[in-house]
Amino acid sequence: MSPSAIRWLIGGILLVLWEVLPRAGLVPQLFLPALSQTIAVAIADWRIFAEALAVTLSEAAVALVFACGGGILAGALLGSVARLRGLLLPVVSSLYAVPLVVLYPVFTAWFGIGAQSKIAFASLYGFFPTLLGTAAGIQTIDAQLLVTARSMGATLSQRLRHVVLPAAIPTVIASLRLGGALVIVGVVVSEMLTSSAGIGYLITSYRTVLDSPRVYVGILLVLLLGVLLDLGMRLLEHAATRHRPSAVPRRAAPAI
């Protein structure tokens, strides 16, 4: 049996168990409502969940631009410029170890409880892993690529754009996956803490009144966002690797 078939089989078994266990009373429906009940609730209240999903998507999309775009650029600079790397990379690594959720009250004090605080928090949440992953990927580039580009008179920006980032695509895409997933987590968590709209807000509201089916609809929507993001990253990786410079990363990249 192929790995794809095994994955589909496991998914089917989990869905069957989700329906059977609550119906048989083996799992309390307060903890896990039946799958059919969850789907029925999603269909009945689709407008409510669609509006909340639109809010979460809009916040996540803006945060993705700041987190992933800024993380890639900053990571490319830190990974390529030795002086910056030695000065700032330990600081960034230390900041990444701090549980950022404890800083969310600071964001609400600065930006209020609207979309701005959620975008800022989610951007920071996804920025650090993208930066660190990109900086690590730069170190795997074949030194000859940069030496050749420098000998041809390429400027720093040209070497970053045409050599560094294309050659580090696999690691950059992996960083984007992690950073993008954390952006979604950051948006949903911030909506659960202080918000009046979004999927996170609905999950918190329905959890307060013990409406388990609607809570699970919100959870499934968050999972769907994560799956769609991963599929998008796979397509991006497939398109980008076709233009990747072919070189064997035998030596660490020198400073640009």
Q: How are the SSEs ordered, and which strands pair?
A:
Layout: H1 3-23, H2 35-44, H3 46-80, H4 82-96, H5 104-111, H6 115-138, H7 143-151, H8 156-167, H9 169-193, H10 199-208, H11 212-241
Helix pairs in contact: 2-11, 3-4, 3-6, 3-9, 3-10, 4-6, 5-6, 6-9, 9-10, 9-11, 10-11
Entry keywords:
2 domains, 256 residues, globular, disordered C terminus, mainly alpha
Shape: globular
Uncertain segments are 245-255
How would you name the CATH homologous superfamily of the largest domain?
MetI-like
Named CATH architecture of the largest domain: Orthogonal Bundle
* Total discrete domains: 2
CA-to-CA gap between the ends?
49 Å
| Highest CATH level, the class of the largest domain | Mainly Alpha
Q: In percent, how much strand structure appears in the residues?
A: under 5%
Helix/strand class: mainly alpha
Rg is: 22 Å
Structure description:
With 256 residues, this protein is mostly helical. The chain folds into two domains: 1-29; 33-241, Orthogonal Bundle (MetI-like fold), CATH 1.10.3720. The protein is built from eleven helices and no strands. The protein has helices at 3-23, 35-44, 46-80, 82-96, 104-111, 115-138, 143-151, 156-167, 169-193, 199-208, 212-241. Helix 3 (46-80) packs antiparallel against helix 4 and helix 3 runs parallel beside helix 6 (115-138). The N and C termini lie far apart (49 Å). Residues 245-255 have low confidence and may be disordered.
